[in-house]
Design brief:
Order of helices and strands: HEHEEHEEEHEHEHHEHHEHEHEHEHHH
Largest sheet: 7 strands, parallel
Radius of gyration: 23 Å
Number of helices: 15
Strand order of the largest sheet: 3-2-1-4-5-6-7
Number of strands: 13
């Protein structure tokens, strides 16, 4: 008989194990430091040469486009970065920057085990949940910085997603307001909140300006759901795909990468029921620019990619964003509405159980109706400040913070 341990218990046991290992590690390290102190004649040694100036941690290869603009800017300044990734095939591992050293540190718990004993001045990441489950703050990391990877709210992270970071790099004032409200409710120390804009969107915007227009094609609909119980595939399942195919339009289905890990049975079932054909394609490109560029409209839910599509390509969206269950998210704590919930009705049509059968007419109307254009620009201004300056501002902050943390008074 095999012993089964559920994921929650497994996470708890792993956290306990890491805690015990940490106690042992720092106990023996303390003894070693004391021995060095005695052997050096009681003189305090120089700063540990193994301390890394800046580490970037990415839990998935899909975040290289988020970090790459910042890495490029830091490299141009000669600032050394160690890029740690949990994806063995991360394109960052093949980067050609002189000052960006990338390494695969294992996936899942193996990656967190290394991070929990990291020795660095600053760690930058888009990964939420620091000091909540497996990923613990290392005693040898001075400062943890979180950067949003989408131009949306931080309150749709799972609860306590950014509570234990020291600083947040943000793209809109409403994100600052939400962060401060959460701090007050939870009696947390005030974090450093810095508006930098969005380096990832800046690159996409520049790419769009330089890219040739998409070749003439038949009407193309992109279905790009998020993952989890609130996603469009969980809400409507095979019905939404079947209705889309009945329109006669070309359909591209691009599931969230996490779905292939967390919702594999669902996707396996849908891919078996709706295999690729001349009308339907399943897209898993790491870079989504090409598929966004050749799509005429996007159908999604609460995925941040809808804002890439609306703000960069200035194209219409249809979103299933009703009855969002906030119970597992930081948004549950706040009385203010989720920003995305206020923005989506302004930038596109809301899909519901009632109008799902009329999806073809919704698509046609959304593409042909130009009234959403001004609303898209207004929403963009709310959540994407300092357009074109994101990477520079992020690098300015990181270099300045490093100098502040390592400054030695005479």
């Amino acid at each position: 008989m095999r012993l089964y341990i559920d994921p929650g218990t497994g996470s708890m046991l792993f956290a306990i194990l890491i805690g015990l290992l940490g106690v042992i590690y720092y106990f023996f390290k303390g003894i070693l430091v004391k021995l060095r102190f005695i052997l050096s004649g009681g003189k305090k040694g120089e700063k540990d040469a193994e301390t890394l100036p800046l580490v970037i941690f990415s839990d998935d290869k899909r975040y290289w486009p988020v970090f790459e603009p910042v890495c490029r800017e830091l490299d141009s300044r000669g600032f050394d970065v160690v890029y740690m990734t949990a994806s063995e095939d991360d394109p960052a591992l093949k980067n050609t920057y002189s000052h960006i050293s990338a390494q695969f540190i294992g996936d899942g718990n193996r990656a967190f085990a290394k991070l929990n004993f990291l020795n660095a001045t600053i760690l930058l990441s888009t990964t939420p949940g620091l000091d909540v489950y497996q990923w613990k703050r290392s005693k040898n990391v001075k400062y943890y910085v979180h950067m949003l990877h989408t131009p949306t709210e931080l309150t749709t992270y799972r609860m306590f997603g950014t509570d234990y970071y020291d600083a947040l790099l943000l793209s809109g004032q409403y994100q600052i307001d939400d962060a401060r409200n959460l701090e007050k409710l939870r009696d947390l120390p005030a974090k450093e909140l810095v508006l930098i804009g969005n380096p990832y969107l800046d690159v996409k915007a520049e790419q769009f300006e330089k890219a040739p227009k998409a070749e003439p094609h038949g009407r193309t609909v992109l279905l790009a759901p998020s993952w989890g119980s609130n996603s469009i595939l969980n809400l409507y399942g095979s019905r939404v795909i079947r209705i889309l195919l009945e329109t006669g339009y070309h359909v591209i289905l691009r599931p969230h990468p996490q779905s292939f890990k967390s919702e594999k049975p669902l996707l396996d079932s849908l891919m078996a029921e709706f295999p690729e054909s001349e009308q339907l394609e399943w897209n898993r490109d790491t870079d989504n620019f090409a598929v966004l560029n050749r799509s005429d409209i996007m159908i999604s839910d609460f995925s941040g990619v809808i804002f890439d599509f609306a703000f960069i390509f200035d194209k219409p969206v249809i979103c299933a964003y009703t009855d969002f269950d906030k119970s597992a998210y930081d948004a549950w704590w706040l009385e203010t509405p989720i920003w995305s919930a206020t923005a989506i009705p302004r930038i596109g049509t809301v899909l519901s159980e009632e109008n799902l059968p009329n999806l073809k007419s919704l698509i046609d109307q959304a593409i042909e109706d130009k009234s959403f254009a001004q609303s898209r620009r207004e929403a963009r201004d709310e959540t994407w400040v300092y357009r074109g300056e994101g990477a520079k501002r992020a690098a300015d902050y990181l270099v300045s913070k490093y100098q502040e943390l390592t400054f030695k008074k005479d």
